[in-house]
Amino acid sequence: THDWRKFADDELVARKQFRYPPYLYLARLTFQRGSTAAAEKAASDWMQNHQQPGLELLGPATPSIGKQAGKPLSQVILKTRQRSQLLAAAQDLPRDSTYDIDPISVI
To answer: Is the pTM of this model over 0.90?
Structure first.
């Protein structure tokens, strides 16, 4: 059947349980380097330097699109209740790195 209300209710329960929007804010950070190892190291180094209370860091991981312009990518997902933490983190990214606040996809 097409019980959209039940689907929405179930989805909200799962999103709350796994700490996804609308219960938290998300950002996806992408690190682009000349090799997979270098991209993963850049992401790991960034994560080690940005541990803070209230900011959950997931990764690093290779995104579904593993390369951009022929260069390997690694990504980190940030979760927090304070949007300002995402914005502050995004301002401190190394060269050849990008961020997406409220990403449509995190795969």
So the answer is: no
The single-letter DSSP state of residue 34 is S
Q: CA–CA separation, 30 vs 28, rounded Å?
A: 6
Residue 94 has what DSSP assignment? P
What are the φ and ψ backbone dihedral angles of 99, each rounded to 5 degrees? -135, 155
Strands (E), 15-65: 25-32, 55-61
Ramachandran quadrant class, 59 (left: phi over 0; alpha: psi -120 to 50; beta: rest): left
- What percent of the chain lies above the pLDDT cut of 70? 99
Amino acid code (one letter) for 51: Q
For the chain, the residue count is 107
Tokens of 56: 């959950």
Residues in contact with 48: Cβ distance below 8 Å, sequence separation at least 6, in sequence order: none
For residue 92, the 8-state DSSP code is: T
Among the listed residues 64, 104, 58, 47, the one whose alpha carbon sits nearest the alpha carbon of residue 80 = 58
